[in-house]
């Protein structure tokens, strides 16, 4: 039977990966190729949406030969987030960024809107659209102040960023289309025009579930990868072996700046203090994949808990609020979970991205899967899931 390319795409999509039209190379998530990170089990979808109630919506904006951008929205729960705020925290790895809403999160320890990611110069317009969305929700008719949480990275290498092509209707579409389950990755939403570690970056996600003996909690991570460095996968020097990394050749321009947004969700009962501690650990994974937080890279981790008892009502019935909070000594399993999930989310953003041609005819190539796997084999960095995994007790 003769298979046409269109049929092959349909078949591979059903298996969880796609083929790029240009390279004819199979794309997929890191695990599809035997690239395993850590020892903990993943959630059902290995995505931030494995944290119950969390949904993700995206809008990809591609127009002509120079618009390559979009919006990715993360909604913490399915109620009115402004009326029922979630505890949250921010960790700033490097503050060269134009995100909006972070100072109030750090001050009050909560998030009161969906978290929306986009490109740098579109952040104010996206924030305005988030305000429109929140103010229009039933029950918010008398609200006079809203702290919109908008994260960003600069996709100006492939996108006509000065044109500010993300519009309010794009933001609303992302918010209204948010759903649980699988999350699209790579060249989608806020990751459409991003690039990372010398290759095409994008949106990536992953999750970890703790053993019952450690609470059975879920940690989910979503990243918008757009930064420089020297790619490393499970300790293998992939960027060096592929001769594609920052400062390799003074006659060529390699991306160092750009930024990374790391969004962390968990159902564990955490205060904003412990959420900040959790957010800090994600930065270990940032270094593991070869990032070094250049001068112009705005690198932020935002963590929130969906644990119902710890939510903060807009109109409190009592002057005193009592919350549940894990003991400090019981935080270590969560630290491991966020470290593992962040690293895998970053790798997924690279493995799922495809070649992208954008502004000025510039093309950023995706991570070459076949060559990468050969390097990982060389350094015994593949199929590490055959080692004993964490035993659930």
Automatic annotation (TrEMBL):
InterPro entries: ArgJ-like_dom_sf, Peptidase_S58_DmpA. Coiled coil: none annotated. It comes from the Bacteria. PANTHER family: BLR5678 PROTEIN, D-AMINOPEPTIDASE. Belongs to the peptidase S58 family. This is P1 family peptidase. It comes from Pedobacter montanisoli.
């Amino acid at each position: 039977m003769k298979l046409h390319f269109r049929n092959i795409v349909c078949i591979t999509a059903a298996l969880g990966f796609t083929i790029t039209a240009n390279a004819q190379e199979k794309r997929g998530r890191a695990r599809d190729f035997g690239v395993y990170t850590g020892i903990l089990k993943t959630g059902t979808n290995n995505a931030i949406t494995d944290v119950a109630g969390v949904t993700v919506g995206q809008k990809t904006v591609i127009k002509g030969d120079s618009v390559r951008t979009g919006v990715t929205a993360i909604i913490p729960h399915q109620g009115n987030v402004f009326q029922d705020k979630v505890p949250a925290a921010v960790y700033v790895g490097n503050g060269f960024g134009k995100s909006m809403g972070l100072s109030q999160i750090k001050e009050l320890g909560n998030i009161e809107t969906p978290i929306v990611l986009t490109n740098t110069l579109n952040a104010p317009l996206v924030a305005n659209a988030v305000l429109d969305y929140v103010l229009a929700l039933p029950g918010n008719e008398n609200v006079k102040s809203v702290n919109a949480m908008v994260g960003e990275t600069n996709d100006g290498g492939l996108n006509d960023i000065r044109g500010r092509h993300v519009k309010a209707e794009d933001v609303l579409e992302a918010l209204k289309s948010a759903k649980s389950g699988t999350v699209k990755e790579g060249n989608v939403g806020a990751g459409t025009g991003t690039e990372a570690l010398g290759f095409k970056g994008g949106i990536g996600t992953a999750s970890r579930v703790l053993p019952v003996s450690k609470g059975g909690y879920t940690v989910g991570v979503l990243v918008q990868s757009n930064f420089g460095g020297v790619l490393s996968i499970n300790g293998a020097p992939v960027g060096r072996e592929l001769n594609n990394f920052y400062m390799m050749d003074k006659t060529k321009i390699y991306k160092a700046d750009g930024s990374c947004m790391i969004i962390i969700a968990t159902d564990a009962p955490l205060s904003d203090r412990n959420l900040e501690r959790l957010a800090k650990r994600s930065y270990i994974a940032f270094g593991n994949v070869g990032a070094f937080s250049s001068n112009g890279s705005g690198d932020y981790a935002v963590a929130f808990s969906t644990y119902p008892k710890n939510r903060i009502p807009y109109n409190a019935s009592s002057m005193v609020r009592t919350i549940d909070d894990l003991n400090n000594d019981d935080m270590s399993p969560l630290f491991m979970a966020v470290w593992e999930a962040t690293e895998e989310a970053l790798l997924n953003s690279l493995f799922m991205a495809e070649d992208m041609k954008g502004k000025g005819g510039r093309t950023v190539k995706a991570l070459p899967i076949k060559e990468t796997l050969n390097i990982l084999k060389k350094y015994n960095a593949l199929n590490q899931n055959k080692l004993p995994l964490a035993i659930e007790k």
